[in-house]
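Researcher: We plan to redesign the surface later, but first we want a full-length starting point. Tokens attached.
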């Protein structure tokens, strides 16, 4: 768990290997966006990135639907939940910066329509509510840390705290993508971080476990892993795939 201070992420961003890993990840994203013709992108490219992200997030959450099935709308319940989130996600960019708890609650509400109404968008207990407030504080706190570090920590906090009764992984990965858009890393949401995590699934799952239980070493390992995942997410962009 991250405790919010005046600059809660600055210490994490300066851990051994983290500055260089995140500088390289950001450079890779910037080069991909620039060299693959960002000016020529269309809303359809963003929609494809969101669809690919929804599929990858759903698979990580247990879905058996293929990308082709997701594209055709022939999906299982988990994939339908992830797709529902993706269709409204970018509309939550302003809320993430101003009222982050409302944005996170909305993501969960979208993901959990099959769950009891009283659980949708609400933390499961007082402890979960406190952890969720901590994530909200991170999202509004001033920090000198790179936006990619913020995205990685928000993702891990939500995934490991599991503040909602269901769909915490989908919420965590959606929030991560939203941070990248809101903080200007990827304003058109063309990187597919969810696909990066799926490509590195074994490392993704083990590093989340380490974040939850491994103390400072686990947090450090997660941050180094996440930089690698962001590079993989840039490789999975429909911009890059279209150019091949």
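Model: Full-length starting sequence:
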């Amino acid at each position: 768990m991250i405790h919010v201070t005046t600059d809660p992420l600055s210490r994490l961003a300066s851990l051994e290997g983290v500055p260089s890993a995140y500088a390289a990840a950001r450079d890779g994203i910037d080069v991909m966006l620039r060299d693959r013709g960002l000016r020529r992108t269309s809303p359809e490219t963003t929609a494809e990135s969101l669809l690919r992200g929804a599929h990858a997030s759903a698979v990580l959450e247990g879905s058996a639907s293929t990308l082709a099935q997701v594209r055709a709308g022939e999906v299982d319940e988990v994939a339908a939940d992830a797709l529902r989130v993706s269709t409204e996600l970018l509309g939550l960019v302003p809320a993430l910066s101003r009222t982050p708890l409302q944005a996170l609650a909305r993501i969960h509400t979208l993901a959990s329509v099959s769950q009891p109404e009283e659980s949708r968008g609400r933390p499961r207990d007082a402890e979960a509510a406190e952890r969720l407030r901590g994530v909200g504080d991170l999202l509004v706190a001033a920090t000198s840390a790179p936006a990619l570090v913020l995205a990685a920590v928000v993702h891990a906090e939500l995934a490991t705290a599991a503040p909602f009764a269901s769909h915490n992984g989908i919420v965590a990965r959606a929030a991560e993508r939203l941070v990248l858009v809101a903080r200007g890393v990827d304003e058109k949401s063309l990187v597919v971080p969810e696909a990066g995590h799926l490509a590195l699934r074994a490392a993704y799952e083990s590093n989340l476990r380490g974040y939850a239980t491994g103390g400072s070493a686990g947090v450090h390992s997660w941050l180094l892993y996440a930089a690698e995942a962001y590079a993989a997410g840039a490789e999975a962009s429909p911009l890059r795939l279209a150019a091949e």
